[in-house]
Amino acid sequence: MFEFPKFPQHSVKNDVLSGLTVALALVPEAVAFAFVAGVDPMVGLYAAFIMGLLTSILGGRPGMISGATGAMAVVMVSLVAQHGVQYLFAAVMLAGLIQVSAGVFKLGKFIRMVPHPVMIGFVNGLAIVIFLAQLGQFKAPDASGALVWLQGEQMFLMLGLVAITMAIIHFLPKLTTSVPSSLVAIVSVTAAVVLLDLDTRNVVDFLRSMSGDENATLAGTLPTFSIPSVPFSLETLYIILPYALILAAVGLIESLLTLTVIDEMTGTRGRGNRECVGQGVANVTCSVFGAMGGCAMIGQSMINVNSGGRGRLSGIMAAIALLCFILFTSSLIEMIPLAALVGVMFMVVIGTFEWATFKLARRVPKKDFFVIVLVTVVTVMTDLAIAVIVGVIVSALMFAWEHAKHIFAASHINEQGSKIYEVNGPLFFGSVANFLELFDTQNDPDDVIVDFGKSRVVDHSAIEAIDTLADRYNKAGKTLHLRHLSHDCQALLTKAGSLVEINHIEDPNYKVADDLLG
Predict the structure, then answer these.
(1) Distance CA 186, CA 183 (A)
(2) Dist. CA 51–CA 65, nearest whole Å
(3) Rounded to whole angstroms, how far apart are CA atoms 475 and 468?
(4) What is the pLDDT of residue 259?
(5) Per-residue b or e along 371-406, where b marks 16 or more CB atoms closer than 10 Å to that residue's CB
(6) Residue 341 and residue 184: Cα distance in Å, rounded?
(7) Residues 262, 299: contact at Cβ < 8 Å?
(8) Are 56 and 297 in contact (CB under 8 A)?
(9) If DSSP codes are grouped into helix, strand and coil, which group holds residue 9?
(10) Handedness of CA 389, 391, 394, 399 (dihedral sign)
(11) DSSP characters for 67-85?
């Protein structure tokens, strides 16, 4: 599904260098997502550090990078606006506890139920979202403070630097993979801008334009421990619970889907339940250290894997490097031109998007291609959690519709003059209408046998359909016999229960999904 540079083996050097590359790319994203959520930039940077460090140590997917994300930031913004940042920290704490519970109860396995077309739509949608997010870097504030597109020489310079960055990332691996091409590109373009004194926007310009503070800087201190300052009451729980549930769901969906993508890229398998626990512990820790929380970042994870990062050390290195930037080298990081980071993210977009999607239009069933397009569009228009849920529901309905067509019956008259219907295929809510149309109640003989030996009765709708069939034959004054039904079916049938012919040797033994047997 994805192509990326081949590294001969896992190595400490690759992990360290890829982690450093990720840390450089994390800075503007963490700042941007903090502004989206309506909190101080340092709250986003602390989240990137804490999430990245703890999920790398405790999580279930080595090489996957976590931090502050846009998907969670858009959920946080209304809570911060209405109740303040302390309520956000409380909601993040509760969300973390919910995520830990999901891991403890082994709910991470359900990510395997996400169909492949939904996965393709997910990565395509996120690639488009990442691309659109980078377009904001081609804008700068005018005299009134409004963001407008760069003009003339500044725009051409920005585009040129982006193109050079992308060229280095693309061509350097053909010469050597001893160092990550993304890191070389960032360092080279930064050096060129500084040495040639080129007038282009850098990280500190971005920070100051977003904050409106001409003295804003990335320099900071270590995060300090502090319990969220909110009343411990049912009213507080009533406020934060809806946000916590959404944050936990969004965080786990994005993290587990990113885990699946990284699994496919590396040919290894992560541990979903452990990742749930790791994400939860990291979010709880964020809440008591003044950080906004987060989840897995597919863009940064792609940078890491494409740069050779495979082990936990790569994520740990990224987090520690980010903290060092904040504490010691903020002035150097602030010099990095935005064009270099945009070029890196554009290459991530190219590597993430599944370009074979366009060829799939003719090769895969139309319903699968429809799901791919649907999930992609919903991801771009709303958010990935809604997109994945919609994709899974639509896929399930399409699956049910297809299997509803698979039920049929072969019929014949036996020597005694009875008509025998041999039902084939699953009988469930989607196929009950087709099932009832298989029988000719008015023209059938007085004695009718329905054999379920090659069928399976799945749910309560199927039981109701059998009862309806029995009622129809009863009103027509005809005798109906039911063969080869399981014990559960016999127990649930009301009108047709007495019509079942019991054969302890031949009757199948399977369960029916019905609350009455719960």
Answers:
(1) 5
(2) 8
(3) 11
(4) 93
(5) bbbbbbbbbbeebbbbbbbbbbebbeebeeeeebee
(6) 12
(7) no
(8) no
(9) coil
(10) negative
(11) E--HHHHHHHHHHHHHH-H
Q: Residues with Cβ < 8 Å from 430, sequence gap 6 or more? A: 400, 401, 403, 404
DSSP string covering 226-242: ----S--SHHHHHHHHH
252's enclosing H/E stretch is helix 234-266
Nearest CA among 471, 469, 510 for reference residue 490: 510
- Angle at alpha carbon of residue 8, lines to 341 and 258, rounded to 5°: 50
Q: Taking a C-beta distance cutoff of 8 angstroms, is the pair 312, 62 a contact?
A: yes
Residue 277 tokens read as: 């626990």
Of 93, 111, 104, the C-alpha closest to 243 is 93
Residue 410: closest CA among 444, 439, 442, 447: 439
Entry pTM: 0.77
Q: Are 23 and 322 in contact (CB under 8 A)?
A: yes
- The string of pLDDT tens digits covering residues 132-158 is 888 888 988 877 777 889 888 999 999
Core vs surface per residue 57-67: b (16+ CB within 10 A) or e: ebbbbbbbbbb
Query: For the residues 444-458, what does the mean pLDDT come to?
Result: 90
Is residue 315 within 8 A of residue 53, CB to CB? The reply is yes
In this structure, are residues 426 and 406 in contact, taking their beta carbons and an 8 Å threshold?
Answer: yes
> How crowded is residue 119: how many other Cβ atoms within 10 Å of its Cβ?
21
Give tens-digit pLDDT for 77-112. 889 999 999 999 999 999 999 999 999 999 888 887
Q: Whose CA is closest to 432, among 392, 400, 473?
A: 400
Residues 61, 252: Cα–Cα separation, whole Å: 13
Angle between helices 234-266 and 298-306 (to 10 degrees): 30
Q: Determine the longest span between alpha carbons in the chain, in angstroms.
A: 100
In which band, very low, low, confident or very high, does the pLDDT at 361 lie, cut at 50, 70 and 90?
A: confident
Read off the amino acid at residue 138.
F
Whose tokens are 């003059």? That residue is 417
